[in-house]
C-alpha cells in the first residue's frame, strides 16, 4: 500500500474509531453508575430491573386483556365535552356522581402526578401493605429508595420508620380510613388519593372542601369531620382501576345476585393493580393476613386489630391472596420479605 492510500484509510477509519470509543465510554459509564447505585443496597437495585421490554412482556403475560392505563386521577376536563362517560355507578364508575365530582375537582384543581415522577423513563414502585409481616423487617431504608412509595389508609409512619420507611408518594384512602391530620404521617408532598367507593365518599370530601354541613349517614364508621390536609394534594382515583381490579384481576361478580353480599377489592390489591399500570417495577411489602384460624394474631404492624375485626368486611381475602400469588408466580410483583 502506498503512503497515500494508507492515509486515506486512516481518515476513513477515524469516524468508526471515534464512534466505537464513544460507544464504549457510554456503556462503561452506565455500567459504573449502575453498579455504584447497586452496591449501596442490600437488595438488588430496583433500577437494575428496569427495561422496557421486560415490563412489556410481563404486562402481556398477565392476560388481563387490557392495556396499561397511566392516567391515574379524574380530571375536571373529563366532564366537559363528554356524554355518557360511564355506564356504571360507584365504586366501578362515575354514573350519577358527575355533579359531586365536578364540585370536588373544581376545588382540588390538580390532577397530575408530580412531573419529577411522571417524566421518569422507568418508575420503580413499592406498595406498603399494613400487614404484621413487615414488623421488625428493617426494610425502611430500602423502601425509601423507590421512586414511588404507596401507602394505604391511615397506616402510621412515625415511630415505625425502621420497618416501613418514611417516604410516602401517594396514600390511598377513603373517608372511613382517613386521618383528620394527614400531616402527622405523611410528607408535605404526599398525594392524598381518595378511592371513592360510594357517593357518600365524594359528598364527604365536598362538604369538607366547601365547609358545608356534614352529613353523617351512610358510613360504616364515622369519618373525620375536619380534615387538615393540603387541598392541592388531593386526588380522586379513576374508578376505572377498581373496576378492572374487580373484573379482570379478581374476577368477582360486579352485580351480585339475590342475597349475595357485595364484595369489593381492598385498597391494598387495588394499589397493586394501579402500580402495575403506572410503574415499571412493582415490589410489595406488608401484604398477607395471618392464618384465619388464629383469631388472636395481630393483623397490622401497628395497633391491636386481630382477624376478628375482619369478619364482617366486604372483602374476599382468600381470593386476593390467590391473585397476589399468581402475580408473584408470573414475576409481575416481588415481595421484599419472606411470606406465607
Ligand atoms: C439479585 O440478582 C441476582 C442475579 O441477577 C438474582 O439471582 C437474585 O435472586 C436477585 N436477588 C433479589 C433479592 O432480587
Ligand atoms: C379481549 O378483548 C377483546 C376486545 O375488547 C375481546 O373481543 C376478547 O373477547 C377479549 N378476550 C378475553 C380473553 O377476554
Ligand atoms: C420485634 O422486635 C422486638 C425488639 O427486638 C421484640 O420484642 C418483638 O418480639 C419483635 N416482634 C416480632 C413480631 O418479631
Ligand atoms: C426520613 O428519614 C431521614 C433519615 O432518618 C431524614 O433525613 C428525612 O428527612 C426523613 N424524611 C421525612 C419526610 O420525614
From TrEMBL:
S-S bonds: 125-279
GO molecular function list: beta-D-galactosyl-(1->3)-N-acetyl-beta-D-galactosaminide alpha-2,3- sialyltransferase; beta-galactoside (CMP) alpha-2,3-sialyltransferase activity; N-acetyllactosaminide alpha-2,3-sialyltransferase activity
Recorded metabolic or biological pathway in which this protein acts: Protein modification; protein glycosylation
Membrane topology category: Single-pass type II membrane protein
Compartments (UniProt record): Golgi apparatus membrane; Golgi apparatus, Golgi stack membrane
GO CC term (a single one): Golgi membrane
Identification of the protein by name: CMP-N-acetylneuraminate-beta-galactosamide-alpha-2,3-sialyltransferase 4
Family annotation (InterPro entries): Glyco_trans_29, Glycosyltransferase_29, GT29-like_sf
Pfam families cross-referenced by the UniProt entry: Glyco_transf_29
Family annotation (PANTHER family): CMP-N-ACETYLNEURAMINATE-BETA-GALACTOSAMIDE- ALPHA-2,3-SIALYLTRANSFERASE 4 ISOFORM 1 (PTHR13713:SF95), SIALYLTRANSFERASE (PTHR13713)
Keyword entries, A-Z: Disulfide bond, Glycoprotein, Glycosyltransferase, Golgi apparatus, Lipid metabolism, Membrane, Signal-anchor, Transferase, Transmembrane, Transmembrane helix
Catalyzed reactions per annotation: a ganglioside GT1c (d18:1(4E)) + CMP-N-acetyl-beta-neuraminate = a ganglioside GQ1c (d18:1(4E)) + CMP + H(+); a ganglioside GM1 (d18:1(4E)) + CMP-N-acetyl-beta-neuraminate = a ganglioside GD1a (d18:1(4E)) + CMP + H(+); a beta-D-galactosyl-(1->4)-N-acetyl-beta-D-glucosaminyl derivative + CMP-N-acetyl-beta-neuraminate = an N-acetyl-alpha-neuraminyl-(2->3)-beta-D-galactosyl-(1->4)-N-acetyl-beta-D-glucosaminyl derivative + CMP + H(+); a neolactoside nLc4Cer(d18:1(4E)) + CMP-N-acetyl-beta-neuraminate = a neolactoside IV(3)-alpha-NeuAc-nLc4Cer(d18:1(4E)) + CMP + H(+)
First-level EC class: transferase
UniProt record similarity statement: Belongs to the glycosyltransferase 29 family.
Positions of transmembrane segments: 9-27
Example GO biological process: glycolipid biosynthetic process
Chief localization: Golgi
Coiled-coil stretches: none
The keyword Lyase is assigned to this record: no
Matching Gene3D superfamilies: Glycosyl transferase family 29
CDD domains in the cross-refs: GT29_ST3GAL4
Iron-sulfur recorded as keyword: no
Amino acid at each position: 500500500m502506498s503512503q497515500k492510500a494508507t492515509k486515506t484509510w486512516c481518515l476513513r477509519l477515524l469516524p468508526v474509531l471515534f464512534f466505537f470509543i464513544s460507544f464504549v465510554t457510554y456503556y462503561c459509564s452506565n455500567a459504573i453508575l449502575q453498579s455504584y447505585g447497586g452496591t449501596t443496597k442490600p437488595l438488588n437495585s430496583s433500577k437494575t430491573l428496569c427495561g422496557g421490554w421486560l415490563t412489556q412482556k410481563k404486562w402481556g403475560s398477565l392476560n388481563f386483556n387490557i392495556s396499561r392505563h397511566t392516567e391515574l386521577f379524574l380530571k375536571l376536563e373529563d366532564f366537559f365535552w363528554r356524554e355518557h362517560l360511564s355506564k356504571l355507578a360507584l365504586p366501578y364508575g362515575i354514573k350519577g356522581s358527575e355533579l359531586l365530582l365536578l364540585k370536588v375537582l373544581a376545588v382540588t384543581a390538580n390532577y397530575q402526578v408530580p412531573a419529577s415522577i411522571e417524566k421518569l423513563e422507568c418508575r420503580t414502585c413499592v406498595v406498603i401493605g399494613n400487614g404484621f409481616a413487615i414488623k421488625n423487617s428493617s426494610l425502611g431504608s430500602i423502601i425509601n429508595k423507590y421512586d414511588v412509595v404507596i401507602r394505604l389508609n391511615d397506616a402510621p409512619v412515625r415511630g415505625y420508620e425502621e420497618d416501613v420507611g418514611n417516604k410516602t408518594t401517594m396514600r390511598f384512602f377513603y373517608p372511613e380510613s382517613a386521618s383528620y391530620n394527614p400531616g402527622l404521617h405523611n410528607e408535605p408532598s404526599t398525594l392524598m388519593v381518595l378511592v371513592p367507593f360510594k357517593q357518600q365518599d365524594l359528598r364527604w370530601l365536598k362538604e369538607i372542601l366547601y365547609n358545608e354541613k356534614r352529613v353523617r349517614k351512610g358510613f360504616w364508621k364515622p369519618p373525620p369531620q375536619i380534615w387538615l390536609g393540603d387541598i392541592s394534594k388531593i386526588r380522586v382515583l379513576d374508578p376505572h382501576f377498581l373496576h378492572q381490579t374487580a373484573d379482570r384481576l379478581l374476577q368477582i361478580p360486579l352485580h351480585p345476585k339475590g342475597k349475595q353480599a357485595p364484595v369489593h377489592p381492598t385498597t391494598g390489591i387495588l394499589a397493586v393493580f394501579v402500580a402495575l399500570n403506572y410503574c415499571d417495577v412493582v415490589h410489595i411489602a406488608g401484604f398477607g393476613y395471618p392464618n384465619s384460624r388464629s383469631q388472636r394474631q395481630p393483623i397490622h404492624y401497628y395497633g391491636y386489630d386481630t382477624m376478628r375485626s375482619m369478619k364482617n368486611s366486604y372483602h374476599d381475602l382468600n381470593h386476593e391472596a390467590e391473585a397476589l400469588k399468581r402475580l408473584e408466580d408470573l414475576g409481575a410483583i416481588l415481595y421484599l420479605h419472606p411470606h406465607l
